[in-house]
Amino acid sequence: MTNDKRLPDDPEQVLLHIWSALEGGTKSHAPFNLLQFATVAYNGKPSVRTIVLRQFTRRLGELFFVTDAGSAKMSQLRSNNHVSLVGYDPATWTQIRLSGLASVSQDEDERLAQWNMLSTRTRRSFLPRDAGFRVDDQACEEGAGPQIQLSVPPAAFALVKVTLVTVELLDVSDEEHVQYNFNRADGTWSGNRSRD
Ligand SMILES: Cc1cc2nc3c(=O)[nH]c(=O)nc-3n(C[C@H](O)[C@H](O)[C@H](O)COP(=O)(O)O)c2cc1C
Fold it and tell me: Most buried of 33, 112, 126, 146, CB within 10 angstroms?
């Protein structure tokens, strides 16, 4: 029997497939919208947590997520910016694993663009508890009252960029698992296919 879900043999085609999956992953509830993001703690131990993929830029091989500026992951990134991410799509039986270098965006336009794309609920989570907003506060949505605070990202809002260095796709849809590995060197991606 043939497995219709199998990816093409050509790694170049698979890389395009991965880029599409990551672009699609920026949509809420899409496969790979939630990724596990791993950092290295001060003591050299791994630390992992779930994040929401907010943007993927294929041309630059960069992904973005938002976080609290005071979170543990942010201080870990200051001492070691080597990171890894992984996600699994049960519908296609595929895992995507990424590694790269994280940096915190200081670009105010980029920060504002991401801030403006967040839901009111998520924006509110970055505001001081005593700001007096409710999740369903119509004024927030309509531009009245507290709009000024919602149109400028607060200090607690951090936009993290991960510049990808390696990308892997593991296809476990068949008995024989197939893995595709890609590396970026001098701005060019190269890859291969392996089985186990
Ligand atoms: C479904 C889900 C989505 C999450 N998305 C994010 C996110 O986009 N950014 C973030 O900083 N934390 C997110 N979290 C919370 C993190 O997993 C983590 O608990 C939190 O950021 C604290 O991590 P840290 O102490 O290692 O920094 C999410 C948690 C869940 C369950």
Answer: 126
pTM of this prediction? 0.90
Q: Which atom of ligand 1 is nearest to the CA of 71?
A: 27
**What is the widest separation between alpha-carbon atoms in the chain?**
63
In a domain, 6, yes or no: no
Atom of ligand 1 at shortest distance to CA of 49? 17
Residues with CB under 6 A from ligand 1: 34, 47, 49-52, 65-68, 71-73
Q: Which ligand 1 atom lies nearest to the CA of residue 67?
A: 11
* Residue 144 structure tokens: 């009245």
pLDDT, tens digit, 9 for 90 and up, residues 107-135:
999 999 999 999 999 999 998 876 554 44
DSSP string, 10-68: -HHHHHHHHHHHHHHTTSTTSTTSEEEEEEE-TTS-EEEEEEE--EEETTTTEEEEEEE
In a domain, 157, yes or no: yes
In a domain, 3, yes or no: no
Which residue's CA lies nearest to atom 22 of ligand 1? 71
Residue nearest (by alpha carbon) to ligand 1 atom 31: 50
Range of 138's domain? 11-194
Residue 57 is part of a domain; what is its CATH number?
A: 2.30.110.10
Domain tally for the chain? 1
